[in-house]
Amino acid sequence: MRAETLLNACVLLALAAVPLWAWVADEPFTITLATRLAILALAGVGLNLALGLGGLVSLGHAVFFGIGGYAMGVLASHAQSYTPLTDWPVLIEGTKSMPVIWLVAMGASGLAALAIGALSLRTSGVYFIMITLAFGQMFYYFAISWPAYGGEDGLSIYVRNGFPGLNTLDPIQFFALCYAILALALWAMARLMRSAFGLALVAARQNAARVEAVGIAPYRLRLVAFVLSGMITGLAGALFADLNRFVSPVMFSWQTSGEIIVFVILGGVARLYGPVVGAAVFVLLEHFLGGLSEFWHIWLGAVLLGVVLFARGGIIGLVVGREVRRD
Amino acid sequence: MSLILFIEQMLNGLQFGVMLFLMAAGLTLIFGVMGLINLAHGSLYMIGAFAAAWVAGLTGSFVLALIAALAAAAAAGALVEVVVIRRLYARDHLDQVLATFALILMFSEGTRWVFGSFPLFLEIPPYLSGPVRLPGGIQYPLYRLAIIVAGLIVAAGLFALIARTRIGIQIRAGEADREMIGALGVNIAALYTVVFALGAALAGLAGALIGAIQSVQVGMGEPVLILAFVVIVIGGIGSIKGALVGALLVGLTDTMGRFLLPVAFAQVMAPAAATAVGSALASMAIYILMALVLIFRPRGLYGVA
Amino acid sequence: MTEVLLDIRGITKRFGAVTACEEVSLTLRRGEIHALIGPNGAGKSTLIGQIAGSLRPDAGSVWFDGHDVTALDTAARARAGLARTFQISSLAMEMTVLQNAVLGALGARGRVMRFFRDVMRDSALRAVAREALDRVGLWDVAAHRVGDLSHGQRRQLEVAVALTQAPKAFLMDEPMAGLGAEGSARMTRFLDGLRQHAPILLVEHDMDAVFALADRVSVLVYGRVIATGAPDAIRRDARVREAYLGDEALP
Fold first, then answer.
1. Residues with Cβ < 8 Å from A245, sequence gap 6 or more?
2. When you count CB atoms within 10 A of the terminal residue's CB, does the N or C end of chain C come out lower?
3. What is the ipTM of this complex?
């Protein structure tokens, strides 16, 4: 078995084993930590599709994370106050059902990604980075200045939303749900990487002129990748909001965008499990360094700088070597 | 809505635009010459503000505070360039984004460590405080007027520097052809450090000047940084002229949007709702402006096609 | 079915005050190799860009297979059946030789918007890729990374990818560039056989290859076509000799 596949399997197993142990040992906080990890990893899997495969350095993925979060917040707050979102032209009620919330989250973030992508993919390179960052900030300010849903203070949900057949208030059951979604997303990504779309997308990153010359328009590839990427990150945002039972404009902030990129890079860009390893490192650093020092971001910064300057394959690259598989 | 209020808001927009120019000019210069995207430029702005507030607190002198801001930001810029940034020129934009994001984390938390989480305050000196009477009977804060004047002087100085001086020639040569200036015998490493420190000093100056009308706190730099990015996207990367035009456009659009949109919506809806909708839309105005520029001029107003 | 497959009608391109291409008209007929030669700076790259679709002419039009394709972009022209090879090998360097060939086949006849099925196991695409690689003699290195290939092999792969597109016409930008004498001779033989499948508009500096292959030659100087004709006629043309004097001697 190849080293990276083995490592991936270990990561996936460990991510299941630790919360199961915590469940047996009755340590709900550890389960919550693992749930947070799984959700952040999912956000990273989304970005990895655009960034790792497509080479699109989006510094605005907080937009989709935030839209997913607010999809949950808005729907659930209307449901808990028994007020409809709107009664014209058709009556739209809030909901406490996770599957419905997820669909709305993915739909809304996909639409936002379509609009932002259509504009920002007209450019490339630094322009793309700056524009995605700017649109992220636009949503951030909009969320702050729109008073209907809490403005700067955000929205709280009293009871976690429901999923048919599960008690989502039980930490281990909610973890299992998030874990399953992450595993599903990873499986879909693995398929996508080997698909016709994946081949063309990666080729367009390596040589856009070649892809055009064989009759495939890179713009369309990238736009589709950007939309799919935004949808996955949006789903992660809805789960994240449900984990905290709280949404606020912070989900839209540039720091959030930066952190999602950090997951992808810490683990190893364009690697299937890069975001999982990266999110794990991030959550663990946050937990342990955060326990040691109030100023743990300094050390996070130092680690990140070290990885960028000296370990460009990320952590998976350090473990299994730089070469990314290409068969 | 009176004409006086309108002119006052225009001046506010101008002042905002001038400040954005100081940020954007450094960014666009650094990108133009070195091809580097520097997210940590906002940290240099913050460093300037903190240095100014600290020195003003010690000495009570606003002039010394400004000098300290320039010196601290330039020194921090030069140090960062030599230690970190230099290794990034040959890297792709992603590495530059990540490394400079790491720098933001380190600068922000480091500053919080040294100065604590509470904001500092920088007093406007007595000789610049109070209103001034402009032609037409407009009362306008002297300090804000001073910022506009100072910013325009710096802008003029920057244009002169680039058009007239030896280092300006080297900068322009560097923008045109990076290999060429090496062949001409220019010390590229030193030139890059100087350009980076110059950009940093401009950001530090902006931070110090704004520090006197807003609070000086950790995280103050990044919102301005992102606005400076919007300015650069609108103006075109690498163009100082584009940075000036873009900065004034963004400054005026933002200020006038916040001022006029709620008033405009009040014509058609209830005052409370008009304020809410108007201010929410106003917060998006500059990004909509950016989107429009992208649709019609993807390389910016003064960008090279 | 018309005789003329590619018809360039009076295209003009200016960059500021510089006219890179002025009223250029060219045709490519079925079954022929039409060589385009000209000294450096004659505007060949600009002309190729306009034919391939990466540059839009300021005036004039490009017709391909009976349709006006002037408004189409590069990808659309490729799908219409115009396959292009680049002067500097333009391939996905981190991918394998086979992946590059499959990409070509995918662009021409596959469905790109497929997200789940393993594209490398698509037997139809693989068969096309294999045939093309076989023809240029690269099947043995199909699993190699393109970045590890020799320069000559990359030139061959460049042509192989064009073959996977099963094009109606080839637009080849200096396929001999950087090949040694032996490599050029082999490529010349290969292109000679290719013209039965599809005509080639060949931009080339290697005059031996041009005069060995071309049915017709056009000479571009300062953005204008100064002569078009059979190789022998071009060789004798006084204006051509003048244009090339001191640049390159015609064989």
1. A156, A157, A158, A159, A160
2. N
3. 0.91
